[in-house]
């Protein structure tokens, strides 16, 4: 009897290279084994880090539970990271490519079968308990462009961040910012069941319904992630354990929390938890089959933490500082916000604003969506580059001019773009911030200045942004990672972020679990200990502000 969460092969058999729809099977020997090396992806693109692999067509992944293979092959799979029975990185070889008659991944609820082509029963996806026992197909695609925008976005909830939109991800990949050449190999996981309800994959024809999408990238380093695991990599290599390539679930260069397993709307909590668990297990098995060391899910939501914890993932906590538009009651003006601070701090903040508007004669405008002139996108890229250039060896220019150009044409993202731009007396832009606003949240991304003007950073990044949040009744402002001290001094409260981590190597995984437990305890203690000594509640309010609730450029 197998557990209800186990993924099994449903495959018509081994080989022949010919007929019938199926998946691409990589065969490293002549016995038709459809196990460890059976996955349908474009190897030269998705797993090109292993050099020398043949290019095969991308099709439905054939994932198997480790216990579903023979004892010999199970041992080979479970020990790939130790070098026993595994091909060395950079020298993997594939002799030929064959096609199986039928392949799918299903959830086995205790009745172990090897179903032939056409033998799979299809249950309605309308009820949670029906699709739980139905067959699920997992597919890897090497870019969001392989999934229609309507199908991808249909899986988003109203409260999801704009960074999960198909347009945003497409701009990242099409601009070469998130690409194999830049260390981000797109390898997105699709979960579907033919004939079910859900978003239709436009390119896939009728009957292919998406139940979930997981944005996945294969990484050869840890840059642009903002969950810092470089120490783990050093410890791994010091013990002879390869750490890269690794598998990352998240949005490139974006330390903003949100769902990472995009499931079809309308699912119950239990059904979503089940689907997240199955997709998580699929990622773990896929990571072993393609010889990546680990799976990392960054800036995820609490329900995903719970589902992945049950699979054995390590739970890591981090801290960001967010502005919340309330102090017991929603603020009605910027002066209302200032009232929460002590007198000395209020005077200082007013003086900082005055130096920008009166002394430097700066005008600041908030440009939103179609209000943003076409030429401003190129200017904002130049502004963005100034901060990176000033950082010298620490700066990382993750975004390109082409990315900003594509954003100007992205009709589904453009309505959420919000530029705060500072102009000098001649009307020329001298500084600005690149932000997005969606579902009551103000997401601060990047800041830069073409001229050095005293206190302009505070005004464009914080004061004018907070003022905008209050004016428009938004709930929060999330300025990204870093800058905790001066953010907290200006009314930003610490919040805990979550990431989940799983390593194929048991010893390394145990170490990371212990590390995350100790670190997480200290993070929670630090957040609890952060007081509000620099602030005081407004006399007009009955409830004090919450005390616990950068890329770092803002």
Automatic annotation (TrEMBL):
Could you tell me which Pfam families the record lists for this protein?
FemAB_like
Give the signal sequence positions.
none
Q: What is this protein called?
A: GNAT family N-acetyltransferase
Q: Which residue intervals make up region (Disordered)?
A: 529-554
**Biased composition, class Polar residues, residue ranges:** 533-554
